[in-house]
Amino acid sequence: FLLEPSTARHDRAHGVRVLTIPRPAMSDQKERMVPADRSNWNAILKWSMAQQGDGTSSAPAREISEEDRRWLLDAMASGFIDEIKRMKDIIACISAGIEATHDAEEIDARVELMEELTDRVSGVDNGGDLHTLGGLEPLVRYVASSPHARLRAAAAEVLGTTVQNHPKAQEAALGCDAMGPLLRMAAGEGDDSPPTDAAEAESTTAAEGDASKGTKELVKARVKALFALSCLLRGCVRAQEAFQLGDGFALLKNCLRVDHPRLRTKALHLARHLATLDMRFMAACVDSGYVLAAAASLAGSLPRQLLVATEVGTDLSADAFTEEDIEMGQVREAALRLMVDVARKVDFDAVPKAVDHLRSAIVVNAINAVGKAYVRFGREEKETYRDEMQLCAQLAKMFE
């Protein structure tokens, strides 16, 4: 394909010629077909209004002339983007230099293209087309071997969006061996190499900031891998079997031990989905210690200011809650939903260990700790966390 000269450049560090495509403006996902030249639309509007008159004429409608017909069709054709062609162009751009280390500008450009591809494949038809166009294989390679965590995360998001509720795309992704790289990425394998031009403006303060940013990018990559796994597993028996054979249950338990709210929440939601698939997966989840891990996540995600409020004997007001506390609330709710669903749906005769885990001291203590925390919540917080409080009450009632 042809590109403007300004959109072609070289990665000097690796000699890779990278082509970038100007991204069309998209206000949201629904704007699938984007006007390329808005002046055409203004002309079409003026022409259409001129044909209508003021609505009072009784003259019969005239047939459009061949010249006007050609002009209208040409204007409409030039005003829309060919989705398939656009996706082909993006795939061609991101397929080169997957294993290479890039400068910051190139990383940003590739992430932007993958974000656009995510928008486009969210349509069911386009999701099925991506594999036909050869787009799944390079995305799996990014997940498996890109040295940049941002690129791995962006690729995983495209993969997850593509296979979500799409059996054909799920089978195609499995055909590209997507399961193994996604499991390893979710487990935390892979570093985050700095951009090739990072040393040009390095300082002690900047280096410390870059290290912190790198850690966040690695965690974000793991969250995106869990998202892709969740989409791949949903409704796909072959993927579920591959997950189990790949020791996915142990991986999820390790994710629950990571001190990061978003990662824990995503892992808890996926664990809950797996546990409710059938009794075989329920048994695997219980044997892997998900109930105990959920209880530990529940007890470890109480608001940080709760201890202070308890010491001074005051209620915990809305002003005391931080963004981290809100994320911890999501962890608590996900943990409670997992435990409630296990208690409701498990066959205790088939999975006797579930009784011991649900009645264990760690579960009982976690529920009691959360119950005491709710007493300290202000009225507004009690309203906000009403669903969570009801789940906790349901779980406590099951032990009576």
Characterization of this structure:
- The chain is mostly helical and 400 residues long.
- Helix content is 66%, strand content 2%.
- The protein has 21 helices and 2 strands.
- It has a two-stranded antiparallel ribbon with strand order 1-2.
- 34% of the residues are buried.
Short note summarizing the structure:
By secondary structure, the chain is an all-alpha fold. It has 21 helices and two strands.
Total helices: the number is 21
Gross morphology is globular
Query: Residue share in helices?
Result: 55-70%
Distance linking N and C termini: 69 Å
* Content of β-strand: under 5%
Question: Could you give the order of the helices and strands?
Answer: EEHHHHHHHHHHHHHHHHHHHHH
Task: Tell me the layout of helices and strands.
Elements: E1 8-11, E2 16-19, H1 38-52, H2 66-78, H3 83-94, H4 104-121, H5 124-132, H6 136-145, H7 149-163, H8 167-175, H9 179-186, H10 204-233, H11 237-245, H12 248-256, H13 261-275, H14 279-287, H15 290-299, H16 306-312, H17 323-345, H18 353-358, H19 361-376, H20 379-384, H21 386-398
Antiparallel strand pairs: 1-2
Helix pairs in contact: 3-4, 4-7, 5-8, 6-7, 6-9, 7-10, 9-10, 10-13, 12-13, 13-17, 15-17, 15-19, 17-21, 19-21
